[in-house]
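Tip: read the tokens left to right.
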């Protein structure tokens, strides 16, 4: 099993005129799921952007999968999967078009797993994204992330706006993902019910403070 921490934030701070993320310390061990809980505007999405190297923290140290961020973000991102409820896919492209595009980039794409997810999520690969419901689009986005087999999943409120049946399907699939002991998940939500049945640990954030 990989002994590197999946995520390690030490003394991370970032300030804006309207918000401040203050002295954030967070560690996620490999093979574990952390529920990242807080109200809207608490700093969950900003923290994830810092983890992915999209935002450079003003202070502190960020390491992801053993890589120093954002300096080594290219190496880290090969093994990071990100999904959120508002992911923007190409509305005129089919699900299969999206699969072919992502597969052409990531050599660890798993065709068999993608087919399993499509069946489980009841997604027709020939259908264009603009014809899918909100729940189906969220599940299509998750398929594109999960079938890459990334070692770290960053899920930014992926179940927001889903009906109860779709939410249950998504949560069941995340349980399956965690059967691989080396895979780690940071799952942000403002709804504790979405993560309490899955998480090994839960971290609360409010107004930029853990």
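Filled-in amino acids:
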């Amino acid at each position: 099993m990989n002994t590197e921490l999946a995520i390690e934030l030490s003394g991370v701070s970032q300030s804006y005129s309207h918000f401040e993320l203050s002295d954030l310390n967070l560690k996620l061990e490999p093979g574990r799921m952390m529920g990242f809980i807080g109200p809207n505007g608490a700093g969950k999405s900003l923290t994830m952007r810092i983890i992915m190297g999209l935002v450079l923290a003003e202070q502190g140290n960020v390491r992801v999968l053993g890589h120093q961020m954002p300096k080594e973000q290219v190496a880290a991102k090969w093994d990071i999967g990100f999904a959120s409820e508002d992911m923007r896919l190409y509305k005129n492209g089919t699900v299969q078009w999206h699969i072919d595009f992502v597969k052409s980039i990531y050599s660890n794409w798993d065709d068999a797993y993608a087919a399993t997810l499509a069946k489980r999520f009841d997604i027709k690969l020939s259908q264009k994204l603009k014809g899918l419901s909100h729940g189906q689009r969220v599940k299509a986005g998750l398929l594109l992330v999960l079938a890459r087999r990334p070692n770290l999943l960053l899920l930014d409120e992926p179940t927001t706006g889903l009906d109860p049946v779709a939410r249950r399907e998504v949560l069941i699939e995340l349980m399956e993902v965690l059967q691989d002991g080396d895979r780690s998940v940071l799952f942000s939500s403002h709804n504790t019910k979405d993560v309490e049945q899955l998480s090994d640990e839960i971290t609360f954030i409010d107004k930029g403070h853990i």
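Residues 67 and 76 are 6 Å apart (CA to CA). The beta strands are 7-15, 20-28, 33-37, 59-64, 67-69, 80-84, 152-156, 184-189, 201-204.
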